[in-house]
Amino acid sequence: MAPTTEGEQKHPRRAVALAAHDASGRVSPICISRRDTGDDDVAIKILYCGICHSDLHTIKNEWRTAIYPVVPGHEIAGVVTEVGKNVKKFNVGDRVGVGCMANTCRSCESCEEGLENYCSKITFTYNSHDKDGTVTYGGYSDMVVVNQHFVIRFPENMPLDKGAPLLCAGITVYTPMKYHGLNEPGKHIGVIGLGGLGHVAVKFAKAFGMRVTVISTATEKREEAMEKLGADAFVVSSDASQMKAVKGTMHGIINTASASMSMYPYLALLKPQGKMILLGLPEKPLQISAFSLVAGGKTMAGSCMGSIRDTQEMMDFAAEHGLTADIELIGADDVNDAMERLAKGEVRYRFVIDVGNTLKAA
Ligand code: NAP
Ligand code: ZN
Ligand code: ZN
């Protein structure tokens, strides 16, 4: 297989990967280059990688940011194979993960506050320019080299496959619950969208002792949401009477919808001064009327991933509570079918690629 990536000259180390070459939403095998393990780096043999809806938005170029070839994947779980001489936190053989960030400036206000996820010079795990100018490649690949600061330790009892999705989906829902005071027992929280993010939002909210109502477009998810995931209630958003029954009852809503929507019916579910936290990143703008926020003094906020400190805290919290993602483990050959099913909302509830056993050079 011919090397095809721009990093080839700078980085001689070869890796196998799946890449999108255009906006078709499909990936195919490619040979990429990874850097040598630097003094502060950790080299990781990737065993599992979750498929986030952001991977799909990116490869289809729905955010107009794709730098092809795109090797997606930011829910990476694997084992350390090599460490640089300054690395103290990790040893060869450790079980580790990498989420959405591969680097940040480490010196701006956000970085100094430990909120690297808001660094303006952030390098994302894929489809992003690294400090040496090359483009980063994500976890649909057999190995990766990452600065030690951005590597997360897997707690002992956390499985790599079911734990991988927590590195994006988990931290993305955990962070707003923590920073917006929605993690208090007894509070009523709504979760819009029962997909990868939504299903772990239900699990974290229950672990925090909250009352959880799922607000979904899919009637058929009701039973699982209540019986398997532990939601207290389930509302179908297209059913006006079900929506009316929970009007004005929620302290906060975690909105994970991947498609654009009218916010009006959802904001009506909040109590006065309730908070709507946007996590979903639809291609098209949301529709919202000022009245639906102003009347009731409601807040609408966004939240992006989470810091490294919070990611480790979230993983440890999840391990303590036996909390993992519900996954469908797939082979590297199944990724294109999985992408189609993800687009249709058919996943229960996260696809995870069995990279270690199935990703081979074409
Ligand atoms: P997912 O597994 O596809 O789940 C998205 C869910 O949204 C679907 O299962 C569906 O749930 C719901 N949905 C889809 N279309 C809808 C519509 N028109 N109206 C209402 N609900 C709709 O995706 P995911 O991986 O959880 O990601 C969700 C979104 O979050 C994506 O846009 C992704 O890019 C974004 N994201 C953001 C961050 C961040 O840092 N903020 C991090 C990761 C992902 P129901 O079937 O239950 O209706
Ligand atoms: Zn993600
Ligand atoms: Zn910074």
TrEMBL record:
EC no. given is 1.1.1.195
Instruction: Say which domain of life the source belongs to.
Output: Eukaryota
A single GO molecular function term of this UniProt record:
cinnamyl-alcohol dehydrogenase activity
Kindly list the cofactors needed: Zn(2+)
**Gene3D superfamilies on file:** Medium-chain alcohol dehydrogenases, catalytic domain, NAD(P)-binding Rossmann-like Domain
The record's annotation in InterPro entries points to: ADH-like_C, ADH-like_N, ADH_Zn_CS, CAD-like, ER, GroES-like_sf, NAD(P)-bd_dom_sf
Report the Pfam families cross-referenced here.
ADH_N, ADH_zinc_N
Catalyzed reaction equations? (E)-caffeyl alcohol + NADP(+) = (E)-caffeyl aldehyde + NADPH + H(+); (E)-4-coumaroyl alcohol + NADP(+) = (E)-4-coumaraldehyde + NADPH + H(+); (E)-cinnamyl alcohol + NADP(+) = (E)-cinnamaldehyde + NADPH + H(+); (E)-sinapyl alcohol + NADP(+) = (E)-sinapaldehyde + NADPH + H(+)
Q: In which pathway does it act?
A: Aromatic compound metabolism; phenylpropanoid biosynthesis
For this protein, the record's SUPFAM superfamilies field holds: GroES-like, NAD(P)-binding Rossmann-fold domains
Q: Which CDD domains does the UniProt entry name for this protein?
A: CAD1
* All copies of domain Enoyl reductase (ER), residue ranges: 25-353
Biological process (GO) annotations?
A: lignin biosynthetic process
Q: Which UniProt keywords apply?
A: Lignin biosynthesis, Metal-binding, NADP, Oxidoreductase, Zinc
The entry describes its oligomerization and partners as: Homodimer.
The text of the family note is:
Belongs to the zinc-containing alcohol dehydrogenase family.
Name under which the protein is recorded: Probable cinnamyl alcohol dehydrogenase
* Species in which this protein is naturally found: Digitaria exilis
